[in-house]
């Protein structure tokens, strides 16, 4: 799947993944975060600096999952049926921490399938970070259905004044299955995938650069990047 993933990336990103082996490195961080700090799950953190070691502040970092194909079993329906016009219908988006990120629909609706659009953005119109989101449908406060939505390749971290960034466990659902993947039209179902422990970081520099990182469970993966 890694080969398929690389083919799906823009050419410039594929080239820079290879270059990253020279420019980026996994090594111990400076004074922050001790090497034996225990965690549950997965986490990536590190520092981004220039060639002189000066921190790069406010740099956006996108996270890309590597996906392993598992099967083509029919995924949960992305259509929700309204069977009671008197009850309040509600369609919401919650993030991996079960936090409400957007209300797609709320109110009474006519009988039949509910029409709504999800453009992978939150209530403020900002593209959601990379992650597995749940779109849930309820009628009169009773959940009637839900499905998972994968957001991949979105900005998930920003460096602080020290050039430090963290991508916590909530955005690293390694082993999650089924992750249903659709074609660019958002309609054609490709298959169910599993998220592997191999991810890519895309650094939003004037010329975007990318690096691959392999994660280990219950261990902080340190990845410093010098530009």
Provide a quick synopsis of the model.
By secondary structure, the protein is mainly beta. It contains two helices and 16 strands. Strands 1, 2, 11, 15 and 16 form a five-stranded mixed β-sheet that branches. Strands 3, 10, 12, 13 and 14 form a five-stranded antiparallel β-sheet that branches.
Q: What amount of the residues lies in strands?
A: 35-45%
The CATH superfamily of the largest domain bears the name: Immunoglobulins
Taking pLDDT < 50 over at least 5 consecutive residues as the criterion, the unreliable ranges are 3-8, 10-35
What would you call the shape? elongated
Number of DSSP-assigned strands = 16
CATH architecture identity of the largest domain: Sandwich
Helix-strand string: HHEEEEEEEEEEEEEEEE
The proportion of residues forming helix, as a percent range, comes to: under 10%
Estimate nothing, just give the exact number of structural domains.
Answer: 2
Number of helical segments with 4 or more residues: 2
CATH class of the largest domain: Mainly Beta
CATH topology descriptor of the largest domain: Immunoglobulin-like
Mean pLDDT: 87
Major sheet characteristics: 5 strands, mixed
Structural class of the secondary structure composition? mainly beta
The oligomeric state is single chain
How far from one another are the termini? 29 Å
Rg, nearest Å:
20 Å
If you had to describe this structure to a student in words, what would you say it looks like?
This protein has 227 residues and is mainly β. It has two domains: 2-73 and 151-226, Immunoglobulin-like, CATH 2.60.40; 81-148, no CATH class. It has helices spanning 2-8, 11-23, and strands at 24-25, 42-49, 60-71, 81-82, 89-94, 100-107, 112-113, 131-139, 142-151, 154-158, 164-167, 179-182, 189-203, 209-214, 219-222, 224-226. Strands 1, 2, 11, 15 and 16 form a five-stranded mixed beta sheet that branches. Strands 3, 10, 12, 13 and 14 form a five-stranded antiparallel beta sheet that branches. A four-stranded antiparallel beta sheet has the order 6-5-8-9, with no helix packed on it. The longest helix is centred in the first third of the chain and has 13 residues, at 11-23. It starts with a helix and ends with a strand.
């Amino acid at each position: 799947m890694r080969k398929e993933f690389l083919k799906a990336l823009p050419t410039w990103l594929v080239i820079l993944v290879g270059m990253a082996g020279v420019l980026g490195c996994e090594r111990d961080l400076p004074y922050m975060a001790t090497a034996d700090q225990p965690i549950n799950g997965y986490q990536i953190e590190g520092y981004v600096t220039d060639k002189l070691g000066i921190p790069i502040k406010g740099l956006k970092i996108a996270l890309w999952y590597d996906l392993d194909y598992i099967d083509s079993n029919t995924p949960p329906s992305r259509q929700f049926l309204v069977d009671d016009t008197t009850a309040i219908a509600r369609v919401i988006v919650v993030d991996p921490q079960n936090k409400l990120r957007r209300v797609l629909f709320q109110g009474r609706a006519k009988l039949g399938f509910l029409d709504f659009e999800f453009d992978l953005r939150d209530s403020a119109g900002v593209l959601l970070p990379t992650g597995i989101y749940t779109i849930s449908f309820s009628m009169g406060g009773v959940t009637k259905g839900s499905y998972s939505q994968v957001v991949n390749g979105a900005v998930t971290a920003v460096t602080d004044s020290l050039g430090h960034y963290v991508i916590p466990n909530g955005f690293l659902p390694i082993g999650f299955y089924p992750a249903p993947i659709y074609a660019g039209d958002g309609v054609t179902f490709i298959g169910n995938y599993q998220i592997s422990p191999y991810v890519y970081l895309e650094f939003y520099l004037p010329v975007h650069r990318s690096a691959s990182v392999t994660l280990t469970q219950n261990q902080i993966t340190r990845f410093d990047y010098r530009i």
